[in-house]
Amino acid sequence: MTAIVLGNFDGCHLGHRALFAALKSEAQKNALQALAISFEPHTRHIIQEPGHPELLNSYEEKKELIEAQGLSLVLQKFDKDLLAMPFRSFVEEFVIKKYGAKLWVMGLDQRFGRGGKGSSETLKAYFDNLSIYEIDPVLHNGMSISSSRIREALKNGNIDLANAMLGQNYSLSGIVEHGFGLGRQLGFPTANLALPAYKLLPKNGVYFGSASFDGQKHRAVINVGNRPSLGGRPVGLEAHLLNFDGDLYDKKLYVELSARLRDEIKFESLEALKEQIRKDVAACRIN
Question: What are the b/e assignments for 7-16, b being 16+ CB within 10 Å?
Fold first, then answer.
């Protein structure tokens, strides 16, 4: 028998972590197995269209974050058939029969099922054998923390606000792929990341942060954008690792953004670009 939380959990932010903490506590009190159930793909990618919204976490990133909270994660495939299922059928067939739930931890006003008709009130009305435990929303600046608020902050370049609601630095991970080699020609080699589908990139600009691989962690200057001074490229992410000189191609790189330094600028010459990069690196060293 299990105690569950259910949702997209995109970002695994402080609101989600409050749910996870309550789940572990209530599961222990009731001698139940704690289980986090996440939909895949994101429900709005079926309700609306793939890629809307852009994702704060890939599945792999979400799995790592939830398991770091001491929970088991299982995926529930979300498709149009599940979308059309009445909430009572969903609860009976999946929540109770498939996952063996005896207790459901949820946030206030959480809705699910066709037409959003599933709620704590309807669960209590129809399912006597399922206990419901609700928690209050987690607030930041007087407003509920949500994935949509974090996305908005990132798109506005407000990395401080996004990180505060996440409870950690916004992170991106991907395989290092070959670029055009122009960073190395400028004296500042960069690792270009191939990001998972629909991963949200913050507002174009230069960021401070870190880059990790194979147990190593380095401070890094990270550029998000299309490199207008180099003729323009598709929008992407590249990181210059401080105090590192080596081959990162085909390695998995984890990048964290801790602060935003400046907008992406088009420079009139490569020498002007190099001088600005020198200043960026110097600033990163002291921050």
Answer: bbbbbbbbbb
Range of the domain at 90: 2-140
d(CA 65, CA 202): 20
Express each pLDDT in 152-168 by its tens digit: 999 999 999 999 999 99
The reported pLDDT for the residue numbered 230 is 54
Count of domains forming the chain: 2
The number of angstroms, rounded, from the C-alpha of 14 to the middle of its chain's C-alpha atoms is: 12
* Nearest of 237, 251, 234 to residue 200 by alpha carbon: 237
Query: CA-CA distance, 62 to 11, in Å (whole number)?
Result: 7
Give all strands (DSSP E) within 8-89, no chain letters. Answer: 33-40, 72-77
Running DSSP on this structure, what letter comes out for residue 115?
G
- Provide the 3-class DSSP secondary structure of residue 23: helix
pTM of the predicted structure, to 2 decimals:
0.94
Percent with pLDDT over 70 in the chain: 95
CA 211 – CA 253 distance, rounded (Å): 7
Q: 183 pLDDT exceeds 70?
A: no
pLDDT tens track for 130-142: 999 999 999 999 9
In this structure, the answer to whether residues 183 and 102 fall within a common structural domain is no
The two structure tokens encoding residue 92: 């009976």
The four Cα atoms 211, 216, 219, 220 give a dihedral, to 10 degrees, of -30
State whether 50 and 116 are in the same domain.
yes
The kind and range of the H/E element at 207 are strand 205-213
**How many C-beta atoms surround the C-beta of residue 213 within 10 A?**
19
Per-residue confidence at 112, pLDDT binned at 50, 70, 90?
A: confident
